[in-house]
Each structure stands twice: as structure tokens, then as C-alpha cells.
Design goal:
By secondary structure, the protein is mainly α. The protein contains six helices and two strands; from the N terminus they run ββαααααα.
């Protein structure tokens, strides 16, 4: 690829998306907020199943988005596990929790 200079004077790879740094082009988490990831996982799995996938107390005891976000922002290893579960869930296209419950009836 050849390098080009933008109007702002930044050097970018030709074909690189504007506004996205070169190391973020292939990052599926770029632009996705932690709150959005957590809400997606809670909606998809529910708190009980989520706590079985990732064993942390904020998913077991104090089951709120607010307390979970506070913990995940301070604890890198837990945040990485949540992000990995999110990526796996997107790839697998796991059925929604309501669909799984209706099949069991």
C-alpha cells in the first residue's frame, strides 16, 4: 500500500478508513462501548447464564449494569473475558435467551 497525506497533514495508508487509526481497522471492538457489550450479553444470556460463562461476583450477587461496569472498568482480566465472550457470541450467533426458553416449554 502506498501512503497518502490527508488534509489535516496526517499520513495514512491508501484505502484506510478515515478517522480510524491503522491498528484499529480490523478490531471488531473499535467503537463499541463496554456498556453496549454488557447489555448485549445480559440480553442474550441473562445474568445467571452469564455468571456461568464468566465467574465474577458482580454477575452472581449484585446483578446490575452499573456495578458490573464499575468492576469491569477497574479489572482488566474480567473485561477481557467479557469482550471475548461478546466476540464469540457474535461469531456463533447464539440464539436469544427468550428463544431458548420458549423451546423448553
Amino acid at each position: 500500500m502506498r501512503r497518502v497525506k490527508t488534509k489535516e497533514g496526517k499520513i495514512m495508508e491508501d484505502g484506510q478508513k478515515k478517522g480510524i487509526p491503522g491498528d484499529q481497522i480490523n478490531n471488531p471492538l473499535h467503537g463499541v462501548k463496554l456498556a453496549e457489550i454488557l447489555e448485549f450479553l445480559v440480553d442474550l444470556y441473562g445474568w445467571d447464564m452469564l455468571s456461568k460463562h464468566i465467574s465474577i461476583n458482580c454477575f452472581k450477587n449484585n446483578q446490575t449494569i452499573k456495578s458490573s461496569l464499575k468492576f469491569l472498568r477497574r479489572t482488566l482480566w474480567a473485561r477481557e473475558q467479557v469482550e471475548q465472550l461478546y466476540l464469540r457470541s457474535l461469531k456463533k450467533k447464539v440464539p436469544h435467551v427468550s428463544d431458548r426458553l420458549s423451546k423448553n416449554k
